[in-house]
Amino acid sequence: MSQSVTVTKNASLHDQLPDRIKSSGQLIVGVNVPYSPNEFKDSSGKIVGFDVDVMNKIGTVLGVTPVYKEADFDKIIPAIQQGTFDVGMSSFTDTREREKTVDFVTYFSAGVQWARPAGKNIDPNNACGLSVAVQSTTTEDTDELPAKSQACVDAGKKPINKVKFDDQASATNALMLGKVDAMSADSPVTAYAVKQSNGKLELAGDIFDSAPYGFPVQKGSPLGPVLQKAVQELIDSGAFAEVARSWGVENGVIKQSELNGAIS
C-alpha cells in the first residue's frame, strides 16, 4: 500500500478567506443528493462521496469545517447569490451561462457516458426509438438527449424516448430492472453505477462532451481565488488523485484548477 498524502492547513490561504467564514470557522456548502459517487448518503444518513472527500480536504487546507446543507439542485445557485450558502457542491458543470450569475472553481473533467445492460449492443450514436433514463434537470435531460432525439426525427427516424427520474439512483435502478434500454449520466456517475452493478451493466460508447465540474461561489467573492488555490494545492500534492482513485473516477483528474474555466 502506498502511503497516503498528508493534507495540512495553509495559514496564508486561511488569512485570505472572507471574514465571515474565518470568524465562524465554517464553510456552508449547498448539496443535492443522491448523485453517486459524487454526493450521496450512506446507510447511517451521512452525506458522503467523491465531492465530499474533496471538500473535506479543502476544509483542511483552509482551516475551516465544511457544513453540508441539503437543497434542491436548482435552488443551490440562487442560495449562493443570496449568501445563504458559501459554496455549492453538486457536480455542477461550469458553463458560460451559469458564470453569468456565479463564479466557478474547476476541479474535475466530466463528460457524458451511457450505460447499457451487459451484453446488449446499444450505441449512444444510434439510439433512435430507444428508451433512455436520465435524472431531471441534468445536462443529459436538458441538452444531450433532446439534441440526439431531434437528429433522429430530422433523419426520419423515431425519436428517443427520454425517461426522467427525480434522482440518479432511480434512473440507474430502472436500467437494472430492464425498464429502459440505456442510461445517460455524467461519466463518473455512470462509471460508478457500472462498478456497483455486479456485472449487470456495462459502459456504452466513449465519454463525450467533456466539460469541467466546478464549485460555484458568489460572483466576485474573494472566496473564489482562495478556493482555487486550495484545489490546486490538493492537485499538486497528489492528494486529489488519491481521492479520485478511491472512488474509481481517476479518469477525470485535471492538472490545473481554474476560476471560471467554462468551455461552452
From TrEMBL:
It comes from the Bacteria. Keywords: Signal. CDD domains: PBP2_MidA_like. Transmembrane segments: none annotated. InterPro entries: Solute-binding_3/MltF_N. The keyword Signal applies. Residues 26-251 form the Solute-binding protein family 3/N-terminal domain. SMART domains: PBPb. This is ABC transporter substrate-binding protein.
